Write the structure tokens for this entry.
Amino acid sequence: MKPIRYLQLVCALLMMGCGQSTEETPQEKTSTGNTSVVTTKNEIKLNNIADIQKAYTHAITMMGKNILDSTLFKYDCDGEKGGTVIYYVDKKDLKIIVHRYHEYDHFEAEDKYFVNDGHVFFVHRKSLSLSFDSGPVGATKENITEQRIYIL
């Protein structure tokens, strides 16, 4: 099974596990006029960490300049868990999947999957959880975790 199909399957199983229907919302591509970023399939070869960093920068630049088309769906698991999955596409090539999700009021996270030629090459995960601190009454502590996963 191709890695990208695996990600799509995981997202679909997550949605079915909620017992809720999903809502799909297409988003329009907004163009910033003439841009210098041009992509073609198999443009970026990923042989080492430096190549992955260049491909990551290229994808983030494309997303920041609104060059990529996107579509999203939201899900809600009875108010306990919920989130949004956004697919960013250049022509017909999937480039980035962003999954933002939360559990109750004390946890939220964002996972970004960067794709080149149908394969995930980099994952950036950020999460924030709140816990009660042993200090003054009602004090909370923020636990922030960030992971960067490079895949050759």
